[in-house]
Amino acid sequence: MESLLTDVAIGFFALVTVVSAIFVTFSPRILYSAFALLFTFIGVAALYIIMSADFLAATQVIIYVGGILILIIFGVLLTARITNLDIFEQTQQRYIALLPVGAIAVGLFMLVLYTPWLNNPAPIKPTTAVIGKELIGTYVIAFEAASILLVAALIGAVRLGRERSDENAE
Q1: How would residue 166 be classed by pLDDT, with cut points 50, 70 and 90?
Q2: CATH assignment of 2-82+96-124?
Q3: How far, in Å, CA of 126 to CA of 110, rounded?
């Protein structure tokens, strides 16, 4: 019964992810695409949870939904009042793009068919404690170097932003 419930949940969230990703791709309005991207990200996070990858699911929600998607929506809403630009909306290479997309789809289908899948999944164990111990223990120097790099990038962004605001004030 538990296996059936897991299979149904995987199928549901995979369907939500794929349908919303198709809507992101083919929606004529960019704001609708951004909101459909929300469902794509949440569907992927739900699939991570089902696969016992709780750290990846939390990272997916915090970084992609909480950060990147909100920036995209703000960018769309802030530039929506620009009306004097003539933006060409139709793509000319849609049918040419079907060739690599079809090849990738066939390759993925063959991968699913010929992969030796495990019949008995491993027991579910949380991964966050192990990752936390590794980040603070084994990889502490790389973790701190990344944090210093991010702080330096933030300071540089603030400085560039202030220089532009000073130029506009004059």
Answers
A1: low
A2: 1.20.120.1200
A3: 32
| Backbone phi, psi, residue 124, to 5° | -75, 125
Confirm if 43 and 27 have CB atoms less than 8 A apart.
Answer: no
Cα Dmax for the chain: 70
Judge whether residue 30 has pLDDT over 90: no
Amino acid at residue number 14 = A
Residue/partner pairs of 26-29 with CB below 8 Å, 24 or more apart: 28/89
Exposure string (b/e) for 101-112, b if CB count within 10 Å is 16 or more? eeeeeeeeeeee
HSE-CB at 96 with a 13 A cutoff on CA atoms is 3
Q: At 118, is the pLDDT very low, low, confident or very high (cuts 50, 70, 90)?
A: confident
Question: Which one is predicted more confidently, 170 or 120?
Answer: 120
- Span 153-163, pLDDT tens digits: 989 888 887 76
**Are the C-beta atoms of residues 28 and 89 closer than 8 Å to each other?**
yes
| Single-letter amino acid code for the residue at 96 | I
Please list, in sequence order, all residues whose beta carbon lies within 8 angstroms of the beta carbon of residue 135, skipping any fewer than 6 positions away.
143
> Domain spans of the chain?
2-82+96-124
